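Kindly draft a polypeptide, keeping tokens residue-aligned:

***
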Amino acid sequence: MMMKERVIFSIALFIMIIALLCMGINLTVVSLPDWTVRIAGIVILADLAVLSYLTMRLKKRGDY
């Protein structure tokens, strides 16, 4: 079960980085469409919950 959680944590971290890059590009380089920014925001919120849960779970087991 631990390996599965570490893989999910890695995937969630990758998704968070991509979503934050989209937001950063929106602020600095080019103005993205409204729907893109909204979807990136929703992804960040959902991913934040997953990352929080998995971080606490992995820390509790001492794998983090």
Observations:
- The helical segments are 2-28, 34-61.
- The longest helix spans residues 34-61.
